[in-house]
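A favour between colleagues. Tell me how you read the following sequence-structure pair.

===
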Amino acid sequence: MVSMDNIFETLHQQGSERYGSERVSQLDHALQCAWLAERADKSPALITAALLHDVGHLIHKFGDDAALRGIDDRHEVLGAKFLARLFGDDVTQPIALHVDAKRYLCTNEPGYYEILSPGSVRSLHLQGGLMTEHESEAFRNTGFYAAAVDLRRWDEQAKIPELRTPGLDYFRKYAEACMIQSEEDDSHAASLAYGG
């Protein structure tokens, strides 16, 4: 069953671990990302996407430090599918596209590659590297191109050790504001999806 409670509990408990080779935890990274989105006066949906964009890292089955072992965990796809049980495209599509946004910016924005953290550089190579011209054009034509690029920029900025941000509970109001269905409906849908 997927509920707002277990999403936030997963982020709180499993997110307290260090974020790969970064100098912040997954939770700190998520909070910094959401805070940057809020400070940019973005919609509740994009703030929620910023908060939850890496939830796929917390639910995959590859174990710790997948990227360090040369595995692309496809966290953007996994996270978007997982969250689609509670949220619409305005939350899930920027999440699904934020890895492509990194590839796009590294290809098309001079100097962007140079600001990547070592962990982001490592994962970039696992995630397909630079885009071709055709891939770049296709990415620009997606409906959530701008939101994904915004999310990606915050993603790279949200890695500051010991930065004080509002806590996880503070951001729950944004997530609740953009839910597409009740949790009761979702638990029924989840049981059907799992053959229950």
User: Anything to note?
Assistant: Residues 182-196 have pLDDT under 50 and may be disordered. Residues 4-182 form a domain with the Hypothetical protein af1432 fold (CATH 1.10.3210.10).
